[in-house]
Every structure is written in structure tokens, then in C-alpha cells.
Amino acid sequence: MSLERLYRDESGRILATLIRLLGDFDLAEEVVQEAFAAALEQWPVEGTPANPRAWLVSTARHKAVDTLRRRIRFEGKREELERLATLEDLPPLEPTDSTVADDRLRLIFTCCHPALAIEAQVALTLRTLCGLSTEEIARAFLVPIPTMAQRLVRAKQKIRDAGIPYRVPPVELLPERLDAVMIVVYLVFNEGYAATSGDARVRRDLTAEAIRLGRLLSELMPARTEPRALLALMLLHDSRRDARVDVGGDIVLLEDQDRRLWDGAQIAEGIALAESALREGGAGFYALQAAIAALHAQAKRAQDTDWRQIAELYAVLLRLHPSPVVELNHAVAVAMAEGPGQGLRLLDALEGRGELRDYHPLSAARADLLRRLGRWADAAEAYRRALSLVANDPERRFLARRLGEAEAKSS
Amino acid sequence: MQYLLLIYGKEADLKSLSDKEKAAFYGEYVAFTESITKSGHFRGGAGLQPVATATTVRVRDGKPVTTDGPFAETKEQLGGYYLIEAKDMDDATAIAARIPSARFGSVEVRAVKQ
């Protein structure tokens, strides 16, 4: 196996182990890089070791000891003395698959600790678990590079100074902490999937990283069903990536997409995971959404979509995890299953309560139902409202086109 | 690691309690303090006199200036503190969550510099 391949596959795992050993993100990163550099020099001459991972961890650890000794000699910090003492006391490491898996799990939970601001959780996760550079993360979230660098520095400082522990949370904290991790993963996915603006290539990287994290979580926590459900949901959404946008960069609605462009293998995997999650874990937050996504994915043509079942699933989701956005999606499904009038009644109730006032999909959904009912003037007004709120170009162009049609028909 | 737990709450809320309710509330504090003493976390703590008794001192250009009132007007006021020894942030926040005022106000958890 080439060193480059080994780096791609193993550097993340080795980093996680070193972070645990050293309790210091930056030092860990530094010595892992040095260990790989040493391998690049020595392995061609001495041959690849029998256990490359153990060699790299051991080498990184020795380099850390050297670095700490140097720092102590010049700066004499008590903290470093303690760390050095701990390191030197450790027996030789034989990192097995399970200890390494534990280290990555520890790292995910540490990066997504609730004591860190959510933006910091996202940035730190992408940096340490996914290996994205500060520049790549800054570009993805449309934040200046120094700001993102500062965010990462502060997050690591807080972990150190406030005593945030490096560990998988104890059993009583695990459910809420796992929720927090999944929120971060889904946030990363949505940032890439929604394509609100910015570099299309970077956005694809984000969805890929989120899916990788989803796989990692499912692998590391096989007894839990929600990680599997989240992975299913992301795979199913992502399966449509080649059909969602046309050559001109314009949005293609779900009902108009060329389903031959959907990724069949990813759909099959997503459906299997969704079914397994539902079967073993019941009506979880992500499991229900994955089931809905699976129903869409299973329809050979838009007109074959089982909207009645989708509406029922949204109704369950609404009961168990009520939110205005779920309510909106439920109304849209009801409109498809029972007719625009029924859906519009639900949307009007939602709007009447004043929630989602600045959420353009609400106005866009109302506009669409009004359009289908032939109420052109009302539809135009709703499209105007949606346009005043929309933030990205492809959606803006789509809404503007619809507004044009509605205005033409209402005059 | 040592943490300072700063207890904030709306003084008006506390004032509005009946004598019986106040006694019960303080009883909870006594029980809490006893329990963290027994568990070895307690290093110090006290309730503070109301914010109306606060005085703020600033020295500018070598001159001390003393003013009536807290350093800033806030919606919730500092009412007390605990100094604890805890393993890590999770340990500290678990203890903070058990402080009776956490149910109505806020407890700020700050690591003490080592």
C-alpha cells in the first residue's frame, strides 16, 4: 500500500489517537505530520514495517516527547511537564482497531461538545475529523479565512482552558450528546446540499464529508439506530445530485427531474438503512424523514409517488417532533395527496400564527398551491413575497419565472 | 480543576416568594451544599447581599472613583457563588445544574486559571 494511500486512510485515525494521548490538537497535528514525513524518508530504505499504524503512532509519540522536552527546556511550563510525565509513563502502544475506533468517537464527541458554540463545533469537526483545511472551511461557509482560523483557535483554547473532557460521554449523557453530534453532521450536509451560494465544488465536498461522518458514526455506534437513519436520509437526498440542477444552473423540481440521473446504488443503500433503522428503532426523528425520502426515491415517475403515505409520515413526525417547518412539509404533502385546497388551508393557518414569516419556502409553497387553484393574482402576491426573502440565485430565477407566469395570467 | 460557579437570578422573583417558599428554597441550598461537601467538590461559596447594596470601584488616571450600584445593569443579578474542585467541564456543569437557582436563573461556569 502506498504511503499516500495510507495517509488518506489512516492519518485521521492516528490523529485521533494522538489527540487523546497529548490532550492538544495542534501538537498532535504537528507530530502526526512529522511521523508521516519520517516514514516517507525511512520506509523506502528500511522497508515498510509489519504494522504501519503502530509504527506511525509510536513515532509520533516519540516526536511529541522530544517537542515537549524542548519546550520545557526553553519555557519550563508546568503543563508541559505534566504531559511529558504522562506520556513517558505509558506502556508501548499497540493500537488495535477498537482502541482507534474509540479514539475517533472520543474526538467526534469532543468536537461537538455543547459548551462550544455551534459554528465552532462544525468548524472543529470539519478540521479534525474530515481533515479540511481552514481555507476550505472558510470558503464553504463564506467566512473570511482569518475569522475561521480565529474560530478554530478559540475552540481549541476553550477545550483546553475550560477543561472539556476527551471522552465518549457516559451512558446518561449519551442520547443528548449524540443528538448534538448528528445536528452538526446534518448541518454540514445541508450547507453542501442547499447550495445557497458559493463554490459548487466545495459544496459537493461538504455533502461527501457529512456522509463520511454519517458512515463513521453508524460504524462506531452500531447499536444506535438514529445514526443509521441520518446516513440513510443524507444518501437519499444526495442520490439526486445530478438531476437537481440543469445545465444552466437552474433548479429542477423533484417532479420534473430525470430519474435516470438518480444514483440507484445510493438509493438502494439508503432505503435498506432507512428500513433497518425504522424496524429496530421505531419512529425516530431522522428515521421518519429517511422513510419519507425513501418513498420519493422509490417512485419510478413523479406521478407514482405515494403522497398519502408521505402525508401520514409527516403527520407522525409533526406529532412527535413538532416544528413549523415540519408543519409546512406536512401541508405540502397533504396538498399533493388530497388537493391544493386542503394544503392551502393548513398553510394559511401556519402563516396566520406568524411563524416562518421570513422563511421563503412558506410563501413559495402558498404561491404554488394558489397557482394550481388558478388564483393568479393571489399567487403573484405570494411569489413576490417569496422573492423578497430568497437568498440564492437558482431559486430566485425559478420564483421570478413563476411570478412572470402568474402576472401574465392575472392581467 | 477548579471552577467558579456564578449564580445569577432575577432578585424580584425571589422577593415575590412567600416566607414558607423562601424557607424551602434555602433548605434546598443547605442540602446541596452539604452534598457537594460530602462528595469532596466544595471549596467555598456564599450568598451575596442584594444588588442594591453593590458598590463599584474604578481607578482612572490614578484616582479611585466609587459609584453606587453593580458594574452594569443586567436582567439577572449576581446572587451568590460556589468555588468547586471538579474533574472536568462535564463534572462542573452537572454540579451547576443542581444549584437551586439554576431552575429560574442562570449559573455561569468559569474555569479558574491554574
SSE layout and pairing:
The complex is a heterodimer of chains A (about 400) and B (about 110).
Chain A: H1 3-22, H2 25-46, H3 52-75, H4 78-89, H5 97-111, H6 118-128, H7 134-140, H8 145-161, H9 174-193, H10 200-220, H11 226-238, H12 264-281, H13 285-298, H14 307-320, H15 324-338, H16 340-352, H17 360-372, H18 376-389, H19 393-410
Helix pairs in contact in A: 1-2, 1-3, 1-5, 2-3, 3-4, 6-8, 6-9, 7-8, 9-10, 9-11, 10-11, 11-12, 11-13, 12-13, 13-14, 14-15, 15-16, 16-17, 17-18, 18-19
Chain B: E1 2-9, H1 11-15, H2 19-38, E2 42-47, E3 55-60, E4 63-68, E5 77-85, H3 89-97, E6 106-111
Antiparallel strand pairs in B: 1-5, 1-6, 2-5, 3-4
Walk me through the structure.
The complex is a heterodimer of chains A (411) and B (114). Chain A is an all-alpha fold. Helices cover 73% and strands 0% of the residues of chain A. Among the domains of chain A are: 1-95; 96-224, no CATH class. Chain A contains 19 helices and no strands. The N and C termini of chain A lie far apart (69 Å). The model of chain A has no long low-confidence stretch (mean pLDDT 89). With 114 residues, chain B is of the alpha+beta class. Chain B has one domain: Alpha-Beta Plaits, CATH 3.30.70.1060. In chain B, 30% of the residues lie in helices and 36% in strands. Chain B has helices spanning 11-15, 19-38, 89-97, and strands at residues 2-9, 42-47, 55-60, 63-68, 77-85, 106-111. In chain B, the strands form 2 sheets. A 4-stranded antiparallel beta sheet of chain B has the order 2-5-1-6. Chain B is globular and about 45 Å long. The mean pLDDT of chain B is 95. The chains are: A mainly alpha (411), B alpha+beta (114). The A-B interface holds A 79, 113, 115, 161-165, 169, 173 and B 1, 3, 86-90, 92-93, 109-111, 114.
